[in-house]
Task: structure prediction
Amino acid sequence: MIFIQFLNGLSTAMLLFLLASGLTLIFGVLRVINFAHGSLYMLGAYFTYSIATLSGNYWLSLVVAPLCVAVAAAIIELLFLRRLYAREHEFQLLLLFGFVLVLDDVVKACWGTALKLVPKPAALDGSVQILGRTFPEYTVLIIVLGPLVALGLWYALARTRIGKQIVAASLDRDAANALGMNVPFLYTTVFVFGAWLGGLGGAVAAPLRAASPGMGMEIVIMSFAVVIIGGLGSIWGAFLGSILIGEVLAFGTLVVPKFVVVLPFAFMILVFLWRPQGLFGKGGV
Amino acid sequence: MPILETKNLSKSFGALQAVSNVSLQMEEGSLTSVIGPNGAGKTTLFNLISGRYVPNSGAVLLKGENIAGLPPHVLVRKGMGRSFQITNIFPELTVLTNVCVALTASSGRSYDCLHALKSSREILGEASAIVESVGLSEYTEYRGSALSHGDRKLLEFAMVLAMKPIIMLLDEPTAGMNQEETNNTVRLIREISRERNITVLLTEHDIDLVFSISDRIAVLNQGRLIAEGTPAEIRANDLVKKAYLGEDE
Amino acid sequence: MSDPKHQPAQKLVFVAIAILLVIYPLVLPRFYSALAIEILIMSLFALSFNLMFGYAGMLSFGQAMFFGIGAYTAGLFLKYISSSLALAMFACVTASFLAAVLIGFVCVRFTRTYFIMLTVAFSELIYAIGHKWASLTGGDDGLVGIPIPRYAIAHLPTIDLENIQTYYYFTLIVVALGALVLRIIVNSRFGHVLRAIRDNRERAEFLGLNVRRHLLLSFAIAGLFAGLAGALLIPFEGMVSLETLHFSRSADPIIMSILGGTRFFLGPVVGSALFILIKDTIQNFAEFWMLWMGAIFVGTVLFLPGGVVGFVGSLGLFRSRHATTEEKEG
Result:
């Protein structure tokens, strides 16, 4: 029973990680918390619903939906966010927040307010036996996907040319500029890539949690907690932070079911008080 | 007893030793200049004395009390005022308001939620007087951001004066100024500091200026104090000539 | 400091508006009074937020927590302790002020992004507590059964807040007083110190100011007035709903202040009026009004950094002198 709950926690953790990694990546380079991240996640889920329903193929939607979200993010960054880089930091945040307001209603207008169920892919519709108990196959996918994405991210950042540029730009924007890196291009790339991760999270979450208008808000605030605990700008921190929060939520449901939602925020505040830059963060507070 | 003293002050940033083992004394009312090539550690020294950095070792004594590591606002309350290399004013507030805020801060009435700032004749009067003393009267209603570079430095100086300091740290007060502005500023610094018996510690790149106004000169090179004395002593010092002045000639 | 040439004109405008506000409910149907009450309450909420944001530079995404704490405190007081309106309001402002001091103490230690995150975290925490502590707050159903104050003082007419006209005048007086107090604070020495801190925090520190303490005081004052605004909402529905603590409530004063203009004292008031009027109008045509409001908000952020008031001002109606003077305060 404990182990099953542990696995449940892991699946929540990996979903959180998909969002948190994008958030922390965007913050690391653009130095802005993407308030709209939850909305992008939500869009990922809704696109998945539409594509899966139209094509009958979940796997297709898993590939296409995050790309659609990436396109939406590109539009947001190129047409809107970019104009505010010269202005005070707060305006970028407010702009992204404005998009949350718009997107949440756009989704209601296009898809309605009712829950949209997304059927699990046939291949993973069953369950496996773990330690004598049944466990959904689909959840296993999520648990496996998380570390794969983490590894992929690590590889992309450490080994590819653009990855290294991204890391450099997150450490020192001005130096990156001086060294001839195309910083605006990097910004767009990072924002779009982070959004893609969020969209992927939505696509993966859709069969599990269904697509609903409030889903973005619920999970994004949780991901903020993860990112703060892990340290803004640190992928590794986001990974560990996700696991921590995922397990806290899983076991918290067993121990203090009534107040389980409070726990991530309590943790976040405690971490803030003890070590403001989080477990692995670098930025100054 | 010297009013300000540093004892074996050191600060490193990782592998870089920015300031090592600097010991200086400043007598009350004197004007000391700190000079040295770029990267010698002058600004770091200032930051250590004014509370922006915490030293790795050593002490900073203000009237005998060790103030090393105390936060800036506490030091200001103890009478230390400072200006910055990159001028630090309130760009969106008017010149007069800049000085009014400085006066409010030094008067200790900054939590006063009831009395309108602009109707206090007392503050307005004192602020106007300070603004006039630095020669910015015609710009009283201009926003800080609208001032020229030289005038901004004057405004910052006015704000330092409004703090009623007993010691002023001026980081390159004439940087970027033309000759006329420089002369004007220097005259102001001398007059006002003499008048109010304020101790001055400043850094400068203009060597002639330094020699003409300083009571004492301290020379830094690569974080170390290589010489300290009257202008005449420094002029005759071989070490200094080699490290610094020699490069100019 | 107004340009002397414009002062008599501005005074006339104020007097005209004041007269309008007073005769308003007497000449218009009930619905408009309700609308005006909503605008007044939100104005106070937005004004309190703007003290922190427009003047001190702190962007809080969690003001709903104080709005809700004020509302619930007043509601609980009226329901269980005493039907005295004055005492209930006293309890309400005390509770929100104290809560703001405690929460603000933690929050002001951090700047910008981290500050914002903390306000969100505390706000979610308080919402969760409000949600789960159903025995106290009524949970999802809200705090119901609050006796609406009917207050009789000696020979004066009874203040019966169930009567919409009385409710309107009561709200008008409280909000006007609140706005007046905030205006005094904003123009005080403290107010200018806040502006200086927003402008250049480091310089403020090097003037000897304990920046954190000043920010804490402004945080606490903002919380106090947010709580007061929350309490004023009670007679509207006769209850306190959980929604007062919800994150979306935190968004309201932000949108309103930005819309109206954060650098002008009355900006948030204009913003509140616009917000509620636009919302009402759109709701007549479309189901999803937030879509349009969000778009307007995005547009304002992008193209009207000074909000509507700033935009109108730049058209030369209130402008005096040259561009180098300080912003004209409303």
